[in-house]
């Protein structure tokens, strides 16, 4: 499906940059337009792929290009004041047909957290196309302020968009490395999952290869619906392509277990990948039984895809999610050496992580208030002590 993507704040901009890189290298054609919005000039300058004209610095009169400093109220104010400039950048869209908007932001900071919901609200008023959000949750150890910001923004953002696709940094953090290195890996994970989902709906890129059951943009749109939050599961497995197989045979090697020629193998591979995708690490950990609508996509070399496998996997997913609205399809990628399953769980309601974030938010707020009250008292004492001294 073709999207107008808007990256808000630093995380939003960086992920947009990675999406553009992915789109350029694969020719998937999923990005109809790309705009990065930030209050921090340096963040915008650091982007590689977003066209210079499509980078919008907002709030210059308020924060002077230095960012919103983890204050969502500032991010919100800057977005409201400079909405016209954001709109002009969106107006530069040359692609006549987009299927939806996607507003992306890290919800723990100030700019994206405060600004992204404001932009979503604005887009909803102006366009008939659906407006989706991609909200990145902070890790638990980023602490109270980030979790408080995220809990608040999450609520407003989810209200303003047709569906909030959620990615939890906490579920994907890698210990030990530098923060930047860690983000590079996490961002790659985001692109793998969401890129695969959106490219599946972009059938033009398929050329002559006709999928047995194509998932088009409208099926993704119907799965996402017009309210709710979404979590995504993913699993993949390398397979031996025909070329590898031939080379191996010529060399007299025989590799077992990864033979594409057996349709039984293909069926089993698909069903087991779909299980792994659903029961493994999701972009947002949730109870899969609380899913309202699901979509299952299997991509890979044409020989590794089959109708039977996808049907079986769909039935399993229906039973496991206990929901009757499960769509399914395949997406042949002739030069790919991986079979991948993507499972979209839309409208999930049982999400412990969100409840926990809200609890952390309340605790953080109480802490702030206590500290404030405490420091006021301390300061008062200090002043009074000084006054006594002076007498
Ligand atoms: N996945 C991912 N998350 C990121 C990245 N950078 C930051 N984050 C997350 O996003 C949250 C918000 O950070 P930023 O995007 O830098 O914040 P901002 O929107 O620019 O807001 P201010 O810096 O306060 O003006 C952080 O708490 C992190 O959880 C990134 O490259 N990838
Ligand atoms: Mg920032």
Descriptive overview:
This protein has 391 residues and is of the alpha/beta class. The protein folds into 2 domains: 198 residues, Rossmann fold; 117 residues, 60s Ribosomal Protein L30, Chain: A. It contains 14 helices and 10 strands. It has a 10-stranded mixed β-sheet with strand order 3-2-1-4-5-6-7-10-8-9, with helices on both faces. The longest helix has 39 residues. About 1% of the residues have low confidence. The structure holds guanosine-5'-triphosphate and magnesium ion. The site of magnesium ion (MG) has 7 residues, from helix 1. The site of magnesium ion has 7 residues, from helix 1.
Protein topology:
Layout: E1 3-8, H1 9-26, E2 31-38, H2 41-45, E3 55-57, H3 60-63, H4 72-81, H5 83-91, E4 100-106, H6 111-126, E5 131-137, H7 144-160, E6 163-168, H8 169-172, H9 179-200, H10 217-224, E7 229-238, H11 242-251, H12 263-279, E8 293-300, H13 307-321, E9 325-332, E10 338-346, H14 352-390
Parallel strand pairs: 1-2, 1-4, 2-3, 4-5, 5-6, 6-7, 8-9
Antiparallel strand pairs: 7-10, 8-10
Helix pairs in contact: 1-6, 1-9, 4-6, 6-7, 7-14, 12-13
Largest sheet: 10 strands, mixed
Percent of sequence in beta strands:
15-25%
Question: What is the CATH topology of the largest domain?
Answer: Rossmann fold
Task: Report the average pLDDT across residues.
Answer: 90
Task: Give the overall form.
Answer: globular
State the end-to-end CA separation. 77 Å
What Rg do the Cα atoms give?
24 Å
